[in-house]
Amino acid sequence: MQDVARPRMFGFALLWGVILLHSASVTACPSSCHCMEKNGLTVVQCMSRNLERIPADLPRDTVVLLLAANHITHIPNHAFRELHYLQELDLSNNDIETVDMGAFLGVSDSLLVLDLSNNHIQSVPKEAFARLRAKISLSNNPWHCECTLQEVLRELRLDPETVNEVICHTAVQEEYAGKPVIQVLDSGINFCNFHHKTTDVAMFVTMFGWFTMVIAYVIYYVRHNQEDARRHLEYLKSLPSNSQISKDFDTISTVL
Fold it and tell me: What is the rounded distance in angstroms from the CA atom of residue 36 to the CA atom of residue 227?
């Protein structure tokens, strides 16, 4: 009986150890953050910790992640892909300049609130926010208003309280710099049409430049060959003609 019971006890102990290890990996907290349970939700508080990048060892059961007031400059691909329960993400008041196109892959279905306000973002790839249903704050960033930004905003659910704080810091048409993006778009401006016109003008200028170069080469070629032809003609004219050779031959024959 004891011999039979021992393997069972060993198996139970092994299973319990695996469960404990898994639990530890799920609830482990980064040393730079403070983790707590609030109303049954795992809240990870990493605010004002002088972080320069997003921690890689975040608990998998994180529901609220607070990363505001750090020095994060970049949101890389798959930054939150293990956080399948993430509902609220605060990245405000950082130094974020770039957002990779796959930055929010893995949390598009769960995320409800995303705060990217007060950063240094000028543009984002339109794929970055694909399929996100979260309410998003993009206020107080130095946005460059052009076609891509217009396409991005068309798909987003912007926070209505901060939507007028999404300002064109620069624009493909300088007259719209300093104005709220939504106000500009609501006036009927289409940055994508302007982009196409700009492209067409650039193509026309390029083609005109090539055409001018071809014409200049043809003129140079013709003139160069005309000069060679003129020299050749002068050379031929300098040669004695057949009639002159015949007269000279007759004169020699008479003398003889």
Answer: 91
